[in-house]
Structures are given as C-alpha cells and as structure tokens.
Design brief:
homodimer; CBS-domain; 3 domains
Chain lengths: 459, 459
C-alpha cells in the first residue's frame, strides 16, 4: 500500500473513532497490517489506545500487541480485564509472550502470570529462565513435528490439522518416538513427493541445530551462512525443544550491530530507543567513558610537562592536527577489524596477515601525508608568512612531518591489533573503542613529537 | 553438525581427494551443506577446486557456486567447458546468476553470455541493467503465480508441478489475466482451506509490494517492519515482475550497517572484504579523509597562533584532554543519532526533541565532568606539586573546567544536529563522520579555551 492510500485510510479511521462508529472502525482497521495498526495505536492518546485495541478481533489483537512498544504494552495490560489478559496470552506466539514479559516490571509479570493456567505458567516460567543472550530466549514452541514413520499424505494432513497455530509450517521437524531430532522436511518437499512415500525416506538427515544455551551470535551466524527460514533448538539429548524463526534473527543482527556502534563510540550499550531513554539513562551511558578518557587525557598532558623547554609556540599549534590524525587513522583500522570480526570475514588467526597489511598501508599513507605536511609547513613559514618561528623552518617542518609518519604507523598498528587482542582474550573487540585507542596514541605520539623536536632542533 | 564431526568429514574428504577415490569423495561431499562445500573449495589449491567442483551433482554444483567468492567463481568459470557453463547458468536462481555476473569483469561476462540461449540472455541483460541500489537488483523471477480463478486444489496441483525450480513456494502471488497483482496466498492458507474454495476468495488483498526502482533500504525496512519471508516487485502498471526473498535482505541490512561503520570512521565505503582488499584499495579508501582532516587540523593550529601570549605551558598540557573529550562527546551523540535514523527509531522531525534532550544531557554531563576537572587540577597544583604554573591555581582550574563544560555542550549539540541536517539535505547522515565533527569542535573549543585564559588570567 502506498503512502497516500495509507494516509486516506488513517483519516477515515480517525473519523470513525471520533464519531464512535465502531463497526466502520473495525472494518477500516482490518485493511491495515498488524505492524501498521500497532504504529497507529502508539501515535494515539492513551484513552483512544484502549478503544482501538478492544475493537480488534481477538487473533489480530494479539498480533498487534506483539508489535507495540513495551511502555504501551504495559499501560494496556494494566487496564485489561481478566478475560482480555488471558485471551492475549493464549493468542500470542510463545516467543512474543516471553519477549513481552521480559520487558515488564515484576509487578506486571506477577499480574499476568496470575491470569494464566498452571500448564501455561510452567512453560512461561521455564522460558523466562533461559539466559537473555542464549538461543533459548529466541525460541518458540509453535512448530510442526512429524514422526519419521508417517507417510507424505499423513504429514500433509497433520499440517492441515495442527498448522493453524504454528509460527511456521514450512519446515517440519522429523523425530523418532523419543522426540530425538533425526531430520527436516520442508512443505516444498512434501508437495513435490508422492503421497505414499515415508517421511523417513525423503527427509534431509543433514540437520543443523543449536542448543538452548548456544549464544545468539552463533544463531545469527548460522542463519546468515545457510539462508534458513527456521532453525531447530535441541537439548543435550538431541531432543527437540523449539525452533527459532528468521524474523527474530533479523532483530538479533540489528541489535548486535547497534551494540558495536555504541561501543566504538565509547557508549555503554543500551537496549532502549534513543527517544524513550531518559536524560539520566543517556547521561549514565555516556559518563563513564567520558570521565575515564578525560582523566587519561590529563595524564597525556602531564607527560608533556617534561618537554616544557621544547614547547615552541609553532610546535604547539600543530598538536591538534597530530592528535586528530592519530585518532582518525587508528579508528579507521579499528573499525575495519571490528566489523570484519563481526561479519566473520576475519578471525584472530589472521593477525599476521593483518599486521603485515596494515604496516604496508601505513608506509604508503604515512609517506603521502608526511610529504603533504612538509610542503604545507614550508609553504607557510618559508614562503608566505616568513615569520620567525624560533627555529630553522626546514628542520621544524621535518620534525612535524616525521611525527605525522610515526603517528600513522603507530595508530594503524595499535588500531588493528587491539581489537584482535580483545577478541583473543574473549572480550568484545568493539570494547577497544576507538576513543581508547586515540588516548593511547596521543600519549605515544606527542611524546615522540616533542622528543624529536628536542633532538633535531637542539632546544 | 558440530565442529568435531565437521572436521572428521573434512579429513575423510581430503583423503578421498588425495587417493583419487571419486565415488567416496562425491558421497562424503553430499553430507555437507552447500555453504560448507563452498567454504571447503575456497580453502583448497586451484587445481583441487576444479576437481571437487566437477564431481558435484549438477544441481548441488549450482547451489555451491552461488556461495563462492567472486574471485574463485571467476577462475572456475575460465576453466569451464561450454557444457559446464550452460549447466551452471541453467541451474542457478536468476538473482544468484545476476549477482555473479555483476561481480565479473567484462570479458568474463561476455564469455558467459555467449553460452546462453537468446531468451535467457535477454532476461539476464534486462536484470543487469537494474540500478545497483534498487529493488530490481535483489529480485528473482522464480516465484509461483496463481490466477485468482483457480481453486485451492488446482493451486496446490500447480505448485506441485512447477514448484521445484522456484526459490520460494511458500507465498504464491495471485494475479488477474493481465498479470496485475491482486493478492497473496500462502501455502499455509492453501493447506488450511477447503479444496474447492476459489483463490480469489481466500487471498489476502492487502498486499505490500515495491517497484523495481525503489531503493534497497526501503525494501529492507519493509521486511523488518512486517516480518515477511518474500516481497513482490511490480512495475508501474502493477504487473508482477519478480519477488525478493528474505535471505537477500539480510545481506542488504548487513551491507548498510557496514557502510555506516565505515563512514563514521572516516573511511570510504568499500564492498570488498578486508582480507581481499589490496594495499592500494585500503590506502585509497583511507587517504582522502585523513588528508582533509589533517589539513583542517593545521588550520585549527593557525587559529591558535593569535593566542600566542596566553600559552602557558600548563594550559598547553591540558589541550589533548580538551580536544579528546570534545571528540568523544561529539561522536557519542552523532553515533546515537546516525544509528537511530538507520533503524528508523528517529526521524528529522524529532530534531527539537533531540536538541532539548541533548542540551539537558550536556548540562548534566558537563557539570559532572567540570567538577571532576576542577578537583583534579587543584589537587595536583595547589596540594601535591605546588609548582609555580605562572598564574593563580584556582583561576586556572576555573579556566580549564569551564572549558570542559563548554566543550561538552557544543559537542553534544553539534554532534546530534549535524547528522540530522545531513539527512534533511538528503545526504547520508553517517557522512557527517565523527572525525569531521571532532575537527570542528577542536577549532571552536580551543579558541574558547585560550580566549577564556586571556580574559580570566589577564595574560
């Protein structure tokens, strides 16, 4: 549906809502996708939200509920009757119900669990206990399981009978009588096979599965690698416990990337969207690194104290250029390595190759930048301004450009190696945030800079 | 399959290859997934690659081919016979064939197209002309189309007949006699409906579709929003031209994130994996920004020249702290905004909310950091070292900490607003790379710093 059509439908929904024409409201809402209805509800005032939500057919209501932001879910749930609460929990897919409960404060979870039957409560409690970063937390139990002794016809019949509440029916999991996973069969395979063929003969025995405790990153790597739509989750005795579907994995990939972005920018990763984060949350996520880096920055300065006598004004004016160049060159290298590790293009085993590559790149880059800097310096001080800088212009130009070369070399090596070292130590490579690298490089390169000045300019 | 099992299979494949036991080789390979066979081939010497590839059954060979890196595809293709080339093109899904051709140099494309029949060549040429950033370039034509007048039984029959070569059979597209898209129906719907029901009555008329020229980002947003497995592509008369499947969209999301990472780190985005990029490519992608930023950095210095008389050594030693803090604070804000825009959490319309939020965060952060800095400064110079810094210690501490406060304020505002301005001007927000922001902030904040020193310390 294109934008103008969507706006027209929305205007008509607003009108029906205002005029309390509930039948019309319900019919108009039904022309929208669940994600669009959720967005519409979130844009409304709280009193309208409940009205719109209550008018939706039961099944659609649950689908819409899964797309709502946690704060809207919470206010809705607090106004729900007993029946509404039971109904939404019955209709939600298990993974969506668990996602919702994980976001709620304890008193809401208690209210919700009080309205479920004992069997459902047991399942929900089990799912809530899976570690947040594990495959178990992405899992759902609404999948189709077939016995390997079924025929194709029996299998299709079973899917027709039980499929309606399953999150995906396109891949069915074939097990023995003890629920041990033995193979998979797709609906495509079923449709293309003879009716009386035995499932055990047409299933693909080469199944890729994960365990409940495997971490989310592993799950998303498997999806990216094999282009799956769903993936079975098994326990330590190879028994089926659930499946993970690709729509949840898209979110995992995006969350992991967001965390890397945040770490590289010296932020504490946060799950809350920016606009929903309070001033205090935002401050909390930024203050630690800023404070640490600010204080380390002052030590860089203290280090420079020993070169007090070498601090010609002209040298001081090139300090920002030097520290910025080091920071930029370092963060270029660090970002490529962090990203390469994240998408699986490089591993820690490649460290020699990377080091050798970065050294050669740094030779080239450093050479070009140093030459530019020498030209720019002599152009200004020997040809244009001709002012007295307190030292020989060409020697000073040499100090500045040799330092540029040194800075590039050290920052490319440090920037590329630190993320690999972090990975080797089983830390997040992005934790070697570009700013941390910058501070280290600042210290080394400014010391080198004023040291060179002392040596070459004899001051 | 777990790692140890995989290593065992690989050892056995290596053995069969070495001993030229081709039947065993073929059987062992068949136990691996196409993605794993491709990885195995890429790890081998070139002469072994062709042997392993040739032993694969035709259909599996095409699947494996799609997973190979472009350079390996190219060397294989150059060794292919006429028959092998035709066969791989016949078996590849159209989108994989187009992806492959797009990566090849012109002479390889010519060789390949010379081996296709005229009809296939026409389709390939049309697809190769779709703009690289558009929905058309992600599209495939292997989908199931149903006429709205079919019954459920006829439809299932049709899927059974023609489904085998289709990339997905799980969503079928329902059209009128002129191929105009009218609705979608999933295999799940078909399996759950009565056999004699007419498709036109059970199809979902509320179809989301994209046009061939819509850009990739729009496509990936739709997939993320609605949790689709596939999406129809239509022309300007609403006629079906192809579909996009979710596995290709996962790659789009990842590529877009990689580009943002690169832009934020002042790198020119590149499509080549790090380890496959030459030294010259890497240098080329880094040099421009480094050069621009280095030269701008020297102007920051020149600006400082006017404060020559205010340059107490103690003030100079706090310069790195000040510029680093500004850079870090700015890149924190910029990263949150760039990421928020990318995942659709914020839009340019939110700019007032964001500005107000950042100002309050900056007040808090700036206050805390300035207090720390005042304490650290007076602790060192009034209590511990007691050295003569050439000015009143408390006034100098005030200059440094007021500057810290100012730097935080200016960098949060600039860092959050520049990406929004870029977006408004229809530029990539990540192009307002954190380093560019740092250089701007350096200039403003160092001028403020030495200006304050002149004013407060009367030097």
């Amino acid at each position: 549906m294109d934008k103008s059509k969507k706006t027209a439908v929305e205007a008509s929904i607003n009108e029906a809502l205002r005029d309390k024409k509930y039948l019309k409201l319900r019919n108009e809402l039904a022309t929208l996708k669940p994600a669009d209805i959720a967005e519409y509800i979130m844009r409304k005032e709280s009193k309208d939200r409940l009205v719109v939500y209550r008018i939706l057919p039961k099944e659609l209501a649950a689908e819409v509920f899964a797309y709502l932001d946690a704060d809207v879910q919470q206010t809705l749930v607090m106004s729900f009757t007993h029946e509404e609460l039971s109904s939404v929990l019955d209709e939600l897919f298990l993974d969506d119900a668990v996602d919702f409960l994980e976001e709620m404060p304890a008193y809401v979870v208690d209210k919700v669990l009080a309205h479920t039957d004992p069997e459902q409560r047991k399942i929900l409690n089990r799912f809530l206990q899976y570690p947040e970063n594990g495959a178990g937390s992405l899992m759902t139990i609404e999948y189709v399981m077939l016995n390997k002794n079924y025929t194709v016809e029996e299998s299709i019949g079973r899917i027709r009978r039980i499929g309606i509440d399953k999150e995906t029916v396109y891949t069915a999991y074939v097990t023995d009588n003890m629920r041990v996973l033995e193979g998979v069969v797709t609906v495509k395979d079923l449709l293309l096979a003879e009716n009386d063929e035995i499932i055990g003969n047409i299933m693909d025995r080469n199944v890729v599965a994960v365990h409940t405790n495997d971490d989310k990153e592993k799950v998303s790597e498997i999806f990216k690698r094999y282009d799956f739509i769903s993936l079975p989750v098994i326990d330590w005795e190879n028994r089926m416990v659930g499946i993970i579907t690709i729509d949840d994995v898209v979110d995992v990939i995006q969350e992991a990337d967001t965390e890397d972005f945040e770490r590289l920018a010296a932020l504490r990763p946060s799950e809350k969207p920016y606009l929903k984060s309070s001033i205090f949350d935002l401050t909390k996520n930024r203050i630690v690194w800023l404070l640490v880096l600010m204080i380390s920055g002052t030590f860089v300065g203290t280090l420079l104290g020993i070169f007090e006598d070498a601090m010609l004004v002209v040298l001081v004016t090139f300090m920002p250029m030097l520290t910025d160049t080091g920071g930029n060159a370092g963060s270029q290298a660090a970002t490529l390595i962090v990203r390469g590790l994240a998408v699986g293009e490089i591993t820690t085993k490649d460290f020699k190759k990377i080091l050798w590559k970065e050294i050669r790149v740094a030779l080239l880059l450093g050479g070009i930048l140093a030459a530019f800097m020498f030209a720019r310096f002599t152009l200004q001080y020997a040809l244009i301004s001709r002012e007295d800088i307190g030292a020989n212009v060409y020697l000073t130009a040499a100090v500045v450009s040799i330092s540029v070369f040194f800075v590039i070399m050290i920052s490319k090596v440090v920037g590329s190696m630190l993320p690999l070292i972090a990975k080797k130590l089983k830390l997040d490579p992005a934790i070697m945030a570009a700013p941390l690298i910058s501070t280290m490089i600042d210290a080394v390169s400014l010391t080198f800079y004023f040291g060179m000045a002392k040596l070459i300019l004899n001051i």
